[in-house]
Amino acid sequence: MPASSASARPEEAPGFPAATAPRAVSTAELDAAVPTCRACPRLVAWREEAARTKRKAFLDWEYWARPVPGFGPPDAPLAIVGLAPAAHGGNRTGRVFTGDPSGDALFAALHDVGLASQSTATHRGDGMELYGVRITMPVHCAPPDNRPSTTERDTCRPWLARELELLRPTLRTVVVLGGFGWQALLPVLADAGWRLPRPRPAFGHGTEVLLGDERGEGELRLVGCYHPSRRNMSTRTVTPEMLRDALRRGAETAGLPRP
């Protein structure tokens, strides 16, 4: 018999992120709250099914199978915004962009430009450190076919909004990987008081947009980069050098030291 709304756990309610995210007073507190969320039934079912069925290569893994929090220092001047965890990547390892081809490309590029301590990321305890950069995403659960619904994106939005708010004192640049992340990010920034050009800027690889703060407290630069998905890398829509160039540009405009 299905549970009544009165007996449902708060973290299962669509409004859970909106009520919970603003209460986090640090990125550490936010990172602890994100994995408790069960607000999107389709995503909960998918992430847990992937953990049950597994891939042959990962039969000995105990999958994370929860929402994946952001990763990186709490005072980063540079942020990277992707799409969502992969079913057998972050959903398995518990760390964003870890354990899948996209992550292999991204962490190798981060290491090449001096933003990561090592070139490969395999699991949460592998010793990986990021220098001045924090990685996050607009959807924290692995979606079927890597395609979150509009409702799922909007339900998850408060996590991203609060994370960027907590980073705001030091944040100078955001490298956005892919059109989905770009479109999800713009309304978050507008709601946070960043002035967006009109019409709103379209995503493109190498696109740069400088946003002013309505409170007059600084500027934020967006840098567009094609997502390093397996498909994009195999078709050379984005190459390792293109990815490194976008990260170098992000680091430069964020004021990070050059390696």
UniProtKB/TrEMBL annotation:
GO molecular function: 4 iron, 4 sulfur cluster binding; DNA-deoxyinosine glycosylase activity; metal ion binding; uracil DNA N-glycosylase activity
Region Disordered, residue ranges: 1-20
Every Uracil-DNA glycosylase-like domain range: 69-247
Keywords on record: 4Fe-4S, DNA damage, DNA repair, Hydrolase, Iron, Iron-sulfur, Metal-binding
InterPro entries: UDG_Type-4/5, UdgB-like, Uracil-DNA_glycosylase-like, Uracil-DNA_glycosylase-like_sf
Pfam family, one: UDG
Record carries keyword Disulfide bond: no
GO biological process assignments: base-excision repair
Protein family (similarity comment): Belongs to the uracil-DNA glycosylase (UDG) superfamily. Type 5 (UDGb) family.
Protein name: Type-5 uracil-DNA glycosylase
Protein source organism: Streptomyces bathyalis
